[in-house]
Specification:
This protein has 101 residues and is an all-alpha fold. It has a single domain, classed as Chorismate Mutase Domain, subunit A (Up-down Bundle), CATH 1.20.59. Helix content is 76%, strand content 0%. It contains four helices and no strands. The two termini are 33 Å apart. Its EC number is 5.4.99.5. Residues 8-98 form the Chorismate mutase domain. GO terms for molecular function: carbon-oxygen lyase activity; chorismate mutase activity.
Amino acid sequence: MLMTHRSPDQCRDMQDIRTEIDTIDRQIIALLGQRIGYVQAAAAFKTSAASVRAEERVNAMLAVRRQWAEEEHLPPDLVEKVYRTLVEGFIQHEMTQWQKS
């Protein structure tokens, strides 16, 4: 996995910042690729559309992500919003996989 080369305070200009952000984004996308593999595998264990949506599980997961955000001194509302969007997309993908099986 790619690593950043400079910390934010070591960046000399906007190009350095953009380069580092691009590197981080590439890492995030690679991790999303790993995550989707598990989402696809999960579809095989689901028995209904409701089990794919798993609203209680999603809500519990979001609460944990908010806690993790707080531990990392990140805005929990922002992290929750990002994860809600992410999870909804993955649920739609999983639903497609589940319907095929």
